[in-house]
Every structure is written in structure tokens, then in C-alpha cells.
């Protein structure tokens, strides 16, 4: 992983197609745009092929899925696979809602996801890992989380980003841990959605090394959040969200390198 | 009504399922999250039962209704009624658009709303009260408004929150008036939507006393807005919206008690 | 064009119906509201006639179009034409996605757009102008852009607002250029969407002179953005978005007159 990829991203201004979560779509578009990517959203299956053609990567977010949107995701995902554009899947709430787990599994039978980005409960559900019993917020340590992320990556032949206090990025063998971040991410809805679309943006500029692309995305977002949080004297979720958009535009690889804790 | 319910809410972190207004969904999710509840949204009827099962309460918002969403609202509302989870209805624009009034009335024939939250024009339409003639913004005084809210509550056997400069909360007999607030709420779109979902959050933690839950929700939002407005030296709707999210997270029952004007 | 129209708008508080881009709908609603208009959104074709009846103007935004939404746009547009309410079309991405160009052209065969607001690539596509070859961001100068905007206006018998570093407003003959603005508009998603809905707001209060209404809308938004940008010491897209909403509420015709560069 190298943070110079951020400079490349800003030079190339990749188009990222997000099939979005209605709840967070505006923030995701603004986060992509502020960082230096070019967001485009779509809701109509009939423009799937054309949208994928102009995009550098695709993010499929199950946050407010419908049957119509699932059909669109199958078409967009298949077109992206054919056109060799990276596909990032964000399996929102598959750990909590059986319908969503089934929808994600069905989607993954016809679309290859190059990267899956989820929290512990979501990755556990996809990996069919015995995690639920321990509760989503109270796992027994990062050892388990790493093995679970690796199992998920091996099962779906993809890179997995398991985000949390420490983000775990793995292709099933290699593991990168990003220790940066701030608890303020939990106070603003859509941090995970944004990370998934940022992974797509970095994957668009480094498709030949998705592990590095995903790790860079995680480091950039977690590090930028940490820089913003350091300025705040109280837990202000509204102010944090605004300053995060500011800083995604202003942050430099040098600033991030100074604080990055990645192993 | 007691403001200690806010402490209970923060301890329990109830899941609130909102079938949302597309215009304001991000703000509503962030407001719920900042206060201490856990927002979840859904757009697919096939996950209705599962979503209700994990939720503590349900908010049905007609803000950008479609026929598909109305079918989903019937399923979610019926499941919530069966599972004894509080249902809050926000009948957006039923006072102005006949199609919406009909949709709300049809919905209310199969789904019992435990709380209805609307402005004067919306409550008047549901109560079939002669209000329109006077104009929505120029009623003849709070006496009429109270009687109208009571009539609506009696008609639908529910609690009514009629929001305005003074919020009126009633179960058809008892009446609580919340006099807090700020005109800045009118300058930011979605204050009413947020109140409806906050009523759901408080209903989730106090389902046995919905009058108190609704009155607390109204006091918390109106009081928090008032505290934020007191810091501003000009009418800044963008800044107000951001600081409101901040303060929903930071506000304490003690701060609110000091300024609450409730009778 | 006269900036006093802003005072009229604030007095009349026109209802603007926007068939919205899901990505930016919240910001557009807040921008309209902050300025002094009254936003309403709708997603259901069956309420088309009633919505148009209460609205002063209509904005059709193709940003996240679906087949269902196109059917709604046909109904809303036809109703607005019949009721002599101004129709503003925002043809998002018709320059980049052939499906969207076809959708816009089909829509324009049954609905008369009174104003079309787009960027250079979008107006070029509608005018069938040889622009794409030159690249969207690297045209050969404003001479070409004016001729292209005029050709589009003549083709569709409407006013065209071609927005960019200089906004060009034309009815096919007369041309108004608005030189105000800031590059920060490019850093916040939805500035174009907001302009389209603001054009609708001004069209609602001055339907008999849509060229002036559109030019005023462009001047108000560009000038307000310029005033906000002048306060910022760095390119902060999040802060800019928030302060833009503030200033749309606070800005006066006198302030705008002082800085307006319109010819």
C-alpha cells in the first residue's frame, strides 16, 4: 500500500458508479467528489451497460435494496465483470436481516465481487462464521476477526475489508491492518457506505492490486477522520461530517503518512 | 412526561425502522443516530416482517409515497401491529393533496397507528375538521388546535402530536403542550420528519405510555433546537441543521429541564 | 433581469414541485426553502395532477431517472403544460449516456420544456452539436457556447441556461451572460440541480418573462456562492455547502447588485 495512490486518483479523477443506499447517497457522492473522484449514480437497469462503460469501477450497496434494484445490480455487476471493471459489494445488514443475506448470496452467484466491504456482523454472515452468538459489538478479539475475514475472502475469491476500530483488509492470505480512525465515524450514518465507494475509486486507479487499493482507501478515510477528530473538543457528529468532506479534499499523502498506523 | 427517558433511550439504543421520505432520509437517520437511537431504513416489502422483528418501533412517512411504498407500509404496519411494536404515522401533505389524504385513510383502515404526528393542516384533514378555510398558517388560536388534535386522536384511537409554534400532544383526553422551539425549524426541511422518527424512538423505550413518550420526543427536539438557536446571531438554516445534529448528541436531560416549558 | 425579483419571490413563497435527483434532493429542498420558496417533491404518478395544481412551477430532473419516473415526468409535464405552469428540464448526463439522451428526447416530444438547464456537454447533446469531439471541459471558447445554447433554444423553442464558469442564458435570440460564481460549486455535488430548481422558483413568480427569471436565478445562485467563497481561506466543500444554504436565506438584492457581473 502506498498513499501516493491518492495523488494518482486526483490526477485521473475516476468515475465511480454507485448503486446507492438512499439514506446516504448524497454524502457518498460528496465524499467521492471532495476526494477527487467523479461520482455517478443510477437507478435504471436499462442504462446499466452504458453506465458501466463510462465508469472506472462499480459499487453495489444493499442499504435500501429492492427487487428492482437487485435486478439492476445483477445487470451492472455482470457488465462490470465482462468489461473487467472492479466490483465492490457493500452487504448492508446481511448480518441482521435474513432476506438481505439471501439476496447477497443470490447476487454473488452471478456477479463476482472483487472486493466485499462490511462490518464484522456482515462479513460473518457471508462467511457463515459463528459470530452472531458473540454479538456484533463484542467479539473476542482481532485474532478471530482476521481469520473470519480471510475465510470470507477465500470463500468468494475476493478481497475483504472488514471495517471496525481496526480495519482488516485481506485477500485470503495477506492481511493489512489499518489502526487509524475515530469513534466519531459511528456517530455519523454512512461512514461504511462512503468507505465502500472510496474503495471503488481506488480500485479504479489500481485494478491490478486490489489489496493495496482497498488498504489505501481504508487508510485515507480512517486517517482523514482521525485528523478531523483531533480538531474537535467535543463529540459533534454534524460538525464532524462537514469537516470530513472538507478534509477529504484538502488532505495530502504526506499528512496521512505521518499518522498512518498500518501493519 | 419525564426527560429521564432520554437517558433510558441512550442506554437501550432502540432500533427505529423508518419507511422514509426520500427528501429528508439522511437527516432523519443522522438525527436518530446522534440522539442515541439506531436508525434502519427499508424499501422492500419482502423484508417487512424481518425488519419489524429487529425494530423497537416503526415510523411510516408519506413524504414521497408511491403505490409500491404504500404496499410496503401496509405490510410493515400490519407486522408491527401483530408484534405489538408502536407504529407512528407522518401524513405528509394530506392537507394539500387529496390523493395523499385518501392514501392515508386507506392505510389507516388496515394499520392501527399508535401515534400520528403532523402539522395543523395535516391533522385537520385527517380529523375532517373545518380548518382549510382558515388557511394553514392562520388558525384562530390554540383553543381550536387542541380540540382538533383531540378529535383526531379520538377518531383514530391514538396519540396525536400536532406540531407548530406550540406542539400539542394528546390521547384524545389528556393534553400536553410543549412551548419550546425556534423559528429556525421552519427554515430547515425535515424537522417534522425528524420529530416523527424521534417519537418512534421514545415510543420504543416507553411503549406502555405513548402520551409521555411523544411529549418527551417533542420536548427534546424543540428544546434542543431552542438551545442551538440561542447560539446563533442570524437566521442561518445550514448552520442550524449541523449544530442541531451536534446538540442532539450532546444535550442532557438537565439542560433540557432548565428550559422546558411544558404544561 | 432585475434582482428585485428575489424580493418578490420571498413575498410570494412559490411552491416548486421537483421530480428530483435522489442524490441531491435534500440539498435542493433546503436551498429552495432557504431562499424563500416552498419545495415539494413527489414520486407517484397518480398524484401528478394534484401536485401540479398546487405548484407554481415544475422542475423535471433526470439525475436518477427510472422508467417509472419518466412516466411520472410525462404526466407532470403534460399537466403543467395544460395548466400553464412553467416546466424546467434538467437533462443530467445526456451528454455521457445515450440512454438518457434518448429518454430526454422522448420526453421532449410530449412535454414542452419552458427552460432547459444543463452544462455544456448536456446542451450540446440536446442540440446535436459537435461538441463531444472537443471534450466537455475543454471547449474552444464562449463564442461557440453561446451559439450552441442559442441553437438548443431554437430547436426546443425554450429558454436555455448553459451553466459553467460563465452562465449563458438565452431564448435563442437574446443572450444574457452571468460571470459570477466560484470553483467551489464544482466541489459540491448538486449545484446544477439546485440551479434548475431555483430557475423554477423564479419562473413561478415571473412566468411572463422566463429569460429574465432564469437570468435572475443564475445571478442569485452564482453571486451567493461568490459571496460565500470570499469568506473561505481554503477550498472547503463541506463548509461551502453549509454556508451557501445560510447565505441563500440572508442574501439581499442590494448585496448581489454590488457584485453582479451580467451582460
Automatic annotation (TrEMBL), chains A, B, C:
The UniProt catalytic activity note for this protein reads: 5-(2-hydroxyethyl)-4-methylthiazole + ATP = 4-methyl-5-(2-phosphooxyethyl)-thiazole + ADP + H(+)
Q: Which residues bind substrate?
A: 41, 190
Cofactor entry: Mg(2+)
Q: Which CDD domains match?
A: THZ_kinase
| Entry keyword set | ATP-binding, Kinase, Magnesium, Metal-binding, Nucleotide-binding, Thiamine biosynthesis, Transferase
Q: Which Gene3D superfamilies match?
A: 3.40.1190.20
Give the binding site residues for ATP.
117, 163
Q: Mind telling me which InterPro entries this protein's record contains?
A: Hyethyz_kinase, Ribokinase-like
Q: Which is an annotated GO molecular function term of this record?
A: hydroxyethylthiazole kinase activity
Q: Does the keyword Transferase apply?
A: yes
Tell me the enzyme class: transferase
Q: What is its EC number?
A: 2.7.1.50
What pathway, per the record? Cofactor biosynthesis; thiamine diphosphate biosynthesis; 4-methyl-5-(2-phosphoethyl)-thiazole from 5-(2-hydroxyethyl)-4-methylthiazole: step 1/1
Which family is annotated?
Belongs to the Thz kinase family.
Per the entry, what this protein does is: Catalyzes the phosphorylation of the hydroxyl group of 4-methyl-5-beta-hydroxyethylthiazole (THZ).
- Please report the name of this protein according to its UniProt entry: Hydroxyethylthiazole kinase
Q: Which gene encodes it?
A: thiM
Amino acid at each position: 500500500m502506498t498513499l501516493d495512490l491518492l495523488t494518482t486518483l486526483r490526477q485521473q479523477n475516476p468515475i465511480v458508479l454507485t448503486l446507492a443506499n438512499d439514506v446516504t447517497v448524497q454524502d457518498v457522492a460528496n465524499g467521492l467528489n471532495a476526494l477527487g473522484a467523479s461520482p455517478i449514480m443510477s437507478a435504471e437497469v436499462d442504462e446499466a451497460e452504458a453506465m458501466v462503460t463510462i465508469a472506472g469501477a462499480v459499487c453495489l450497496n444493499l442499504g435500501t435494496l429492492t427487487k428492482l434494484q437487485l435486478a439492476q445490480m445483477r445487470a451492472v455487476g455482470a457488465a462490470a465483470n465482462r468489461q473487467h471493471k472492479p466490483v465492490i459489494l457493500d452487504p448492508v445488514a446481511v448480518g441482521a436481516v435474513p432476506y438481505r443475506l439471501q439476496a447477497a448470496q443470490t447476487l454473488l452467484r452471478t456477479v463476482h465481487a472483487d472486493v466485499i466491504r462490511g462490518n464484522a456482523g456482515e462479513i460473518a454472515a457471508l462467511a457463515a462464521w459463528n459470530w452472531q452468538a458473540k454479538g456484533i459489538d463484542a467479539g473476542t478479539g482481532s485474532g478471530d476477526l482476521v481469520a473470519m475475514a480471510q475465510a470470507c475472502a477465500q470463500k468468494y475469491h475476493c478481497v475483504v475489508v472488514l471495517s471496525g476500530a481496526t480495519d482488516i483488509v485481506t485477500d485470503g492470505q495477506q492481511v493489512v491492518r489499518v489502526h487509524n480512525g475515530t469513534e466519531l465515524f459511528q456517530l455519523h450514518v454512512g461512514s461504511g457506505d462512503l468507505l465502500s465507494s472510496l474503495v471503488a475509486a481506488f480500485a479504479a486507479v489500481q485494478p491490478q492490486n486490489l489489496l493495496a487499493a482497498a488498504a489505501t482507501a481504508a487508510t485515507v478515510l480512517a486517517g482523514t477522520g482521525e485528523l478531523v477528530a483531533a480538531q474537535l473538543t467535543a463529540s459533534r457528529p454534524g460538525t464532524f461530517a462537514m469537516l470530513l468532506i472538507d478534509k477529504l479534499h484538502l488532505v495530502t499523502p504526506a499528512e496521512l503518512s505521518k499518522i498512518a498506523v498500518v501493519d
